[in-house]
Design brief:
The complex is a heterodimer of chains A (287) and B (253). Chain A has 287 residues and is an all-alpha fold. Chain A is built from eleven helices and no strands. In chain B, the strands form two sheets. Chain B has a six-stranded mixed sheet with strand order 6-7-8-3-9-10, with helices on both faces. The chains are: A mainly alpha (287), B alpha/beta (253).
Chain lengths: 287, 253
């Protein structure tokens, strides 16, 4: 056998270096061409909009007014997402609970909400709930009707939060179950109780698995926040539709509002990528 | 504090999986403080299950487990019992075949996790001892590496340090070298050996003959959920009394 010190391990031979270079080249070329291609698609999109005679001046004139609805859209989205996250964690714990009452409550919640259209749920919170209040009032509960009559914004946030909470319950549950039994056993053998195990071992690892599907839900919810326009809240899409109808230029207004949503979702997506990169720090491939 | 003479005591332990998979059949075992015991036996004989019953990763179907001054009987229920089980786990370190390090934590974070989360220490309090343990298993330079960047042998040594950080009174090793490449086995066995020399009470399920022969004070052979034979290693290895032990030893020696 050769003396190990004689082995030429420090020098990568030129032919191997050439292969490495060409792999790197291919990767950079792919990235560059991908960027070109995407840019081309965007240019093409605007070209199409231009040749069908879109009135860009009209769009620019109303941009400020429509952006005024951004506040509502963001408010509804952020609060509904927060509510959905809380419900999802509670729902997932419920779905995994050995307590039959808690488990059945969580299961019924997921089944009922996922089994009915969001549109119907929005009207339930807004239009049907006051009727329940009325009935309760008749049964002698004072003030029930007032409490059960929700402002449009609150009804919208509750409808979206409760609905997305149900979908996300299943994501969180699956994420928690994806953590191997060995991790639980290691945590238990250190003497952790179940809440310590959940908080320190299961959730942090599950979080990493559920970030992509949860981001999907966030993105979907930002767009579904337009449903609150059904109740007359002057958010982004409601303003666009109103103006479009009034001047008979719906195309311009709808294209404009679609672009605004698109940009918001692109921003969300880039946040997702950053969070994912941060979460992947224990991963071999990132080093 | 007076050291107890007996660290682990198991009486009439039975374990049935499902309704009819009868894995442990009335096991008795006494392990003295500072004793090193190796359990051998063919696969499926119940060695791992026995080990996992000691810290209640498996729920015994019948019998009594005593670790140090704590006693838990199978079939007991209630909060107070669960508290005793947690106490047993704090006094018992366990080392798994598949290491089971927490992948989202660095080596150091893995080691201080028990003291910080379970014992309520502040990280600053736990870090000096954790660093000492890292040095003791020879991995001071891997302090801030994530498990995915460590070899199997290194991961297992961090796992041992993680258990030791709880200052356990007894260490359970469940085939700690079975998932390792042959050239990495030595570094883990070496750590186990040093632990034994420092007086730790050890119950190990392992096929490392060197450890069983040179380090263990007692070897027990299990088959089909019961003891076949027990004794000092030199006796068991040179002059096994039972046909079943002879057959098993012929396979592994």
């Amino acid at each position: 056998m050769n003396d190990p010190s004689e082995l030429p391990v420090n020098e990568i031979p030129p032919e191997a270096q050439a292969v490495l270079n060409s792999i790197e080249d291919t990767q950079t070329r792919f990235k560059r061409n991908l960027a070109f291609s995407l840019a081309g698609l965007v240019v093409f999109l605007f070209f199409v909009l231009y040749i069908i005679g879109l009135d860009f001046r009209f769009m620019a004139r109303w941009l400020g007014f429509i952006m005024g609805g951004m506040g509502y859209t963001l408010l509804v989205s952020v609060l509904a997402i927060t509510l959905a996250c809380i419900l999802a964690v509670l729902g997932a714990l419920g779905r995994l609970s050995r307590n039959p009452v808690i488990n059945s409550l969580a299961t019924a919640y997921v089944s009922l909400i996922r089994g009915t259209p969001l549109l119907v749920q929005v009207y339930m919170w807004y239009l049907a709930l006051p009727q329940v209040g009325q009935a309760l009032e008749r049964m002698g509960i004072a003030g029930a009707q007032r409490w059960f009559t929700l402002p449009a914004l609150v009804a919208g946030i509750l409808a979206l939060g409760v609905c997305y909470g149900a979908y996300m319950t299943e994501i969180v549950r699956a994420g928690m179950q994806s953590i191997g039994v060995g991790q639980r056993e290691a945590a238990k053998s250190l003497g952790m109780n179940s809440s310590q195990m959940l908080r320190r071992i299961i959730f942090p690892q599950a979080l990493r698995v559920i970030i992509p599907p949860v981001s999907n839900e966030f993105i979907a919810m930002v767009k579904d926040s337009s449903l609150v326009s059904l109740m007359g809240v002057w958010e982004l899409s409601y303003r666009a539709i109103k103006i479009g109808r009034r001047y008979f230029q719906s195309l311009e207004m709808l294209v404009l509002v679609a672009l605004i949503y698109w940009v918001m979702c692109i921003i969300l997506q880039s946040v997702q990528e950053r969070v994912e990169a941060h979460m992947a720090r224990g991963d071999r491939r990132t080093h | 504090m007076a050291e107890r003479d007996t660290m682990v005591s198991i009486q009439n332990l039975h374990k049935v999986f499902g309704r009819d998979i009868y894995v442990l059949r009335g096991i008795e075992l006494e392990v003295k403080t500072g004793e090193v015991v190796v359990i051998l036996g063919p696969s499926g004989s119940g060695k791992s299950t026995l080990l996992r019953c000691i810290n209640f990763l498996e729920e015994p179907t019948a019998g009594t487990i005593c670790v140090d001054d704590l006693t838990v009987r199978a079939g007991e229920k209630g909060r107070e019992r669960n508290r005793r089980i947690l106490e047993i786990r704090k006094k018992t370190g366990m080392c798994f075949q598949s290491f089971n390090l927490f992948p989202h934590m660095t080596a150091l974070e893995n080691i201080i996790e028990g003291p910080v989360t379970v014992l309520g220490q502040k990280p600053q309090e736990a870090i000096p001892y954790a660093e000492e343990l890292l040095g003791w298993v020879g991995l001071s330079d891997k302090r801030d590496e994530y498990p995915a960047r460590l070899s199997g042998g290194q991961q297992q040594r961090v796992a041992i340090a993680r258990s030791l950080a709880m200052r356990p009174k007894v260490m359970l090793f469940d085939e700690p070298t079975s998932a390792l490449d042959p050239e990495l086995v030595g570094e883990v066995v070496d750590v186990m050996e040093r632990l034994a020399r420092e007086g730790m009470t050890i119950i190990a399920v392992t096929h490392e003959m060197h450890f069983a022969r040179d380090v263990a004070q007692r070897v027990l052979i299990m088959d089909n959920g019961g003891w076949v034979e027990e004794g000092p290693p030199e006796e068991i290895f040179t002059n096994p009394q039972h046909e079943r032990s002879r057959r098993f030893l012929a396979h592994i020696l």
